[in-house]
Structure formats: C-alpha cells, structure tokens
Design a protein that fits this description.
Helix content is 63%, strand content 10%. By secondary structure, it is of the alpha+beta class. It folds into two domains: 123 residues, no CATH class; 162 residues, Alpha-Beta Plaits (2-Layer Sandwich). The protein starts with a helix and ends with a helix.
Amino acid sequence: MSTLKQSIFWVAFYLVAVVIVAQYDTQATPIIDFAKYFYFVAIGVVPATVFFPAISKVNVFVPMAIWGCIYLVLVQTLDRSSAPTGAFAIILLEFILVEAGTWLSYQVALGISHAESLMDALALSAFPNNVHDIELESQRIKIELTRSRRYHRPLGLLIIQSQSDEQQVTREMLKSVHHDLMNRFTTARIGQIIDDRIRQTDLMLKDSHGRFAILCPETDVNGIATLAERIVQAVKERTNLQISWGVATFPDDALTFDDLLLKARERLKDSVSAPKEQVAVLNSADQGSRI
C-alpha cells in the first residue's frame, strides 16, 4: 500500500508541475515555450491510464508507446511555426514528460489493480468458491460448445446479477473503499451459494461487472430455469438479497458463446420476477424458435 501512496504522490507532483509551467507559459516571457497541445496530452494521459483497468494487465511499454505515438503524430500534424530555434530540444523535453507521465500513471493503475486483487483474495478467503474469470476460460467454453455441436446436445447459460440497494447507490457516486470492499464480499458470498447449488460438470464464471455466468452442459430451458429458482431462493434465505437472472440455450437461442451471453444478458430482469412466470416466458420463446 505504501508503494501505491508513493505512486499517487508522484502523479500529483507531475500534474502540479505541468500546471505550474502552463501558468508561467501564459506570461510574456515563458520559462519554456511548450506547445499548447502538449498540456492536453500531458494531463490527459493520467486519467486515461489510471481509469482503464485493462492498462495494468499489459506491459508498461505498451501505453508508453501508444502515448508516444499520439504525441509524435500531433507534432507532425499541428503547427509549431511560432516555436523558437531550440524547437527540437523542446519537443524532446515534451516527449520525455509525456512518457514520464504515462509511466507514473501506470504505476498508480498497477497499485490499484494489486489492491483490488488483495480485496478479492480477502473476500474469497471468507467465502471460498470455484468461480473462474470468464476471460480466462475461453478454451473450456469452446470445448463445451464443440461437444454440444458434435453430439447435438443442449447447453444452457445462466446469468446471475445481484440487485441490492447498495449497488444502486454505488452507481451514482464514486466508489469508496468501504463500498468496494462490501461489494466484493457480497459477490464472493453469492458465488459460494451458487457453487453449492451447481453440478461438478457446470462451469461458473464471473465477468468484469461482477455478474456470474453458469455454463450448464446437457441442460435445457426447464432445467436451467429450475436451477435459477433454487439459486434465487438460496440467496434470499442466506443473504436477504435479491438477484435477477437471464438464460439462453444452445442451439435454440444462439450458436456461439458470445451470442449466448448477449441473449442471456438481454433477459436479465430489473427485479426478480415470479419463477413460474419466467419459465413460462422461456418455454414460449423456446417453442417459437422451433416452429
């Protein structure tokens, strides 16, 4: 955590330094005649790097190369005719500052990613389950889809999403550490309950939005709706939380996993409907697709 604090301090120092130089640059005799677009790049690189979680999953040289190329393109396309004779030295200094800002911002993003991983591990230790990251299980998903195609067997996908009141509040405000930690514990608890209700052959996944996706081989619409019923009841009894769910089946609703996900997410309800009503809707949709 001390490393994260240091990274935040240096990013703040970097932004303050750029702003101070920009203020002096507006005077009659600027310290350094930086280009106007440099300030937009130098300051914009911080939120663009910090607030995209995927950035911390790639090597630091990737965002540095991207922002370096963006700056060089601006140098080539925008007018610098008013720059003094030492324009090359200024361009080099601007380039170094942009790269330094990218590197510092990456360290903050990396520290935040480590902190989130620590909170996930803490929540998982309290409520252990066998949930897998949906992005890391593409190979097993392909195997299940291939098996279903080859043997003409049904395959169901169930999407589960928590509908707690606190989750709605966190959408409307910046997430504090308390809210973020509580959400992770809630997700881990729901994952543990789901894990107790599914079969060993079912694959439980979780996407980046905290939604669970359960891939159920040899399961048709009725079977997966029955599973959803049991999960809804168990979550309500153990946590007093409401969850919404949506299902899609192969091959009736879609032929690829991405299309199955899209269809199941479309069927997510804003609030929990009566299980019998949902089953009736799914059955009618299933019969209509076969006509």
